[in-house]
Design goal:
Structural class: alpha/beta
Number of domains: 2
Strand order of the largest sheet: 6-5-7-1-8-16-2-17
Number of helices: 13
Number of strands: 17
Shape: globular
CATH architecture of the largest domain: 3-Layer(aba) Sandwich
Radius of gyration: 22 Å
CATH superfamily of the largest domain: Alkaline Phosphatase, subunit A
Distance between the termini: 30 Å
């Protein structure tokens, strides 16, 4: 009860009538809870008291996603306001041609300036003289318009990390082999970094991303007991940021934007397209890059007329494959043509409910798995891929209900809250004021 009273007090203080404060006095915290499906909020007993209070004192909506419905393309859509064919992020990293076999690889370490092909809201904020920070955001490696970065791969030599170590907030040991640490520990460290940035630096824009719910959903599937525990854990992390804003004296001009990048579906069977291609004599000719509910198929673009029919015949009728989509169907999905973007595949596969694509090269083409698991990557038109949008605080009227919005609307909304311009966005500001 004491926790609820404290949260109600803090959130009430974060929700004044909207008065035009100078941009330099504002703070927008964009918090991404990876893999949080919109349908989860339909459960009145979901253990998320902090998020419930934010909704009650602000607004919420179901949010459509962009294709492919995976982490990096959708995070990039939310900061650029454009679809994947324009911002250029088609996977969890940049897809590069290798000149060998396999013909493509996904590189997470490409600099943001080369990876993202559209202006971002944090670029606009920085150029307007505002300060920016990011903690575990994606497609943002070495971004020159981030004032204070704490990356997915933190190092004791990093400017924010070294500052936190000097102050005794974290230790250098905490960051050793960080990428191998369990995801709950990493989320705790990232939350601690966000709290530090809020209290010490008061950035005008903070981009913050937590991963544990996504990991749990992949391992145990949505609507599992493990997933409920992950929801409660994330709610506690958000509560820490609320308390940090209050302690930093920013409560009057701070806005919380809580989002997710995609929803989730459970599956009990795997599709292994590489085995079907090998059986048709296409091993070493056609390559599959699986993305859960969808998969990219690559082969020599110069031989597309010859190879497309062979690959389609090899995959037609495979249990679990729903559609085989060619380039003539890419534009409506917000995806580029392969002759215009070397990252793009020649064919896109989609999975039926209960199935997920795998890169496994052994066993049957379609196989049952020992226990249910979870995937995303299904077409964005699937309502199970819808994400969450919650807004509360400065510039948000209490009780606003928005129905269904698009995630390309998030960037122009954040831009308006910060008093900056993002004319390249295709989305439009969400009516939260």
């Amino acid at each position: 009860m004491k926790l609820l009273v404290m949260l109600a007090t803090i959130i009430a203080l974060l929700s004044p009538a909207f008065a035009q404060a100078p941009p330099q006095q504002r703070m927008v915290l964009m918090i991404s809870l990876d893999g949080f499906p919109a349908y989860a909020l339909d459960d009145p007993k979901l253990p998320i008291p902090t998020l419930r209070h934010l909704i009650e004192n602000g607004g919420s909506a179901r949010m459509t996603t962009v294709n492919p419905t995976i982490t990096w393309p959708n995070h990039t859509a939310m900061v650029t306001g454009v679809h994947s064919d324009q911002h250029g992020v088609l996977a969890n990293g940049t897809i590069s041609r290798t000149g060998g076999w396999p013909p493509v690889k996904v590189d997470e370490q490409v600099d943001k300036e080369k990876m993202v092909h559209a202006p971002t809201v944090y670029d606009a904020a920085y150029k307007a003289g505002l300060t920016t920070a990011q903690v575990n955001w994606v497609a943002i490696n070495r971004a020159p318009t981030i004032t204070w970065p704490f990356s997915e791969w933190p190092s004791p030599e990093g400017p924010v990390e070294s500052e936190m170590i000097r102050k005794g907030i974290i230790s250098a040991t905490d960051l050793e082999k960080f990428e191998r640490s369990n995801i709950l520990f990493r989320d705790l460290i990232w939350t601690t970094a966000a709290v530090h940035l809020i209290r010490e630096h008061k950035p005008n824009l903070l981009l913050f991303h937590l991963l544990s719910l996504d990991s749990v959903h992949h391992e145990y599937g949505p609507r599992s007991l493990a997933a409920l525990s992950a929801f409660a854990f994330l709610d506690g992390c958000v509560s820490r940021l609320l308390e940090a804003v209050n302690a930093a004296g920013m409560r009057e001009h701070a806005t919380f934007i809580i989002v997710s990048d995609h929803g989730f579906k459970k599956h009990t069977k795997q599709i292994r397209p590489a085995l079907a291609l090998a059986a048709a004599g296409l091993a070493g000719t056609a390559y599959v890059l699986p993305e859960g509910g969808s998969a990219y198929v690559y082969f020599d673009q110069s031989k597309a007329a010859e190879l497309t029919s062979k690959v389609v015949r090899a995959l037609e009728g495979v249990e679990g494959i729903d559609k085989i989509i060619g380039p003539d169907g890419f534009a409506v999905l917000g995806l580029p043509q392969p002759d215009r973007d070397v990252q793009m595949c020649q064919l896109l596969l989609t999975a039926k409910d209960g199935y997920s694509f795998s890169g496994a090269a052994g066993g049957p083409v379609t196989a049952s798995i020992p226990q249910q698991a979870g995937s995303h990557g299904y077409l964005a038109t699937d309502p199970d891929m819808d994400a969450i949008f919650i807004a509360s605080g400065y510039g948000v009227r209490a009780g606003v209900r928005l129905g269904r919005i698009a995630n390309v609307d998030v960037a122009p909304t954040v831009a308006r809250l910060l008093g900056v311009s993002l004319p390249t966005a295709n989305g439009r500001p969400i009516p939260i004021q």
